[in-house]
Amino acid sequence: MTTDTRTRKRRRRSDWLVALVFLAPLLAIYAVYYLYSIVFLGQTSMQRIGISLLRPVQVGFENFALLATDPVFLGSIVNNLVFAAASIVVALTIAFFIAVALSTGVRGRKLFYLVFLLPALMPLSLVATIFGSMLQERFGILNETLRAVGLGDLAQSWLTTPGLAYTAVILVFCYLIGLPIMYYTADLSALPTSALEAALLDGAGTFRIMTQVIYPMMRTTHITVILALLLGAFRGLEQVLFSTGGGPGDTTEIVGTYVYGYVNSGGKTIGYAAAASIVVLLIGLVISLAQMFATRTKRSAR
Amino acid sequence: MTTTDLLPPDVEADPGQPRRGTVPSRGEDNPMRAVITSRGDRILVYVLLIAMGLVFAFPLYAMVAKSLQGAGIANYTTLLTQPVAGVNVLTTYLNSFVIGLLHAALVVGIGSMAGYALSKLHFRGRELAFALIILFLAVPGTALLIPVFHITNEADLFNNYLGVALPEAVLTIPFAVLLLRNYGHNLDDSLFEAARMDGAGHFRVFWHIFLPMTRPAIANLLVLCMIWSLQDFLWPSMLFTNPGMTTAAQAVSSFANALGRSAEDFGRYNASLVLLAVPAVLFVLFGLRFIVNGFASGSSKE
Question: What is the value of ipTM here, to two decimals?
Fold first, then answer.
């Protein structure tokens, strides 16, 4: 028995080295692209410097001070939250309904999946461009349709009027609900059937089963969907860059376009963009932690 | 859905459980069929689905309708035969495809090795290591823009497929580790222990047992990596300057800049958008199962 525990102990110790070997490629790539990146961001955020990264001027925390007082940056965080909220509302209602309805094995499923999921699987630059192009002033289909039916007076410059441009970006975000549909579809297939059978015996109708039986049972999926969409918004770039470009007058800016804009401005704005990147990174890590916390409570509940 | 917008799936591999995340069928074995309880409800579900489908299909329809404006079908033939601003549509597919393969190879290689270590090897601090690795699950790509630009410069990887595949893989690896670790976690230990008793080394066990048994999860990862590379605009736009390397997502902006704003050009521009959407259509038609499988987020076993 003592030899048994000893061999097991020895095996455990040797596992440590083996594990290190198996984790080595990951550790190498993490060391360069995450750890070094974070150190580099920290350094750069204290400098005034261009994209060539030559001849830095040390400025201390000036970039962070500027960032904290820039209404456009704060506005972009608010916009991220608003766009995420809009897509979450649509996901928890319409995407849920679509996923359940398609799970019941309706006819023409393949076509429906194609229509609802395609936008989320195409390049986002493409989807946002389609919206931008539909709303385009001269040849956009919306204004053309309005003119064709004699409502030419209603034709607008949709993308240059603040309120309308804002709505357009919200529509782009709401259009991309393929992801939540996929989450719901995947989890619905593992739904315990006993609860469904009980509801059927009660004689509940389709919509009552959906809202009062299935909806509460998908709690974990709802949380996953909410966090994924929140994250998606903070990872967003193309949704805005290719529809309104952040305009008019920065009103539709999100953090993605904000950082991207300063990185590509061509001026000595890289230090400032690095400071903004650090804030974005911290937001990402907080969302990660929220997700890990959600999974943990889930696991202990098991 | 940009690169790894999604959050943890907790894949179950219990043979006794229904396979999580399968695409619904019309067969008798689909318990969700019971949700539709009456003829009236069925009609209402169809009406709602069709109405939503029409709304979602409209932007796609608008794009196709616009693409025939001007020269009609010739818009397509000229795009397929003549490059626009040095960019050929078919080449962009190829570029995205090559990057996708590199991206997938990096993710599956590094992710499966780490997944094996974190699920089948025993060492102290394993759970902590796992938590630290997936902490980076929600890092937005824009936050790493400046350091990755710098690293790519130092490594001389500008205008190199690997230069783009690496940061894409870096952002996907936390997700891959989560997927493969959870999948491995649910595989029965006894087979692995028996192989070890028989004197098989860890690399043999990894290669001959772990990899074959995690094949479904690896298949999901492969398809998702291809899709994310196809969608990625951020990294190619920052790291490629050679028009010959333009990817499909990037081509959206190249074509927007090159094709003017006359009515004919607008038609050709929309035709280019339709062509750039084709790979995504193929993914939905032939890879839907793999995509949905990768999204199972459910947790509970009860």
Answer: 0.88
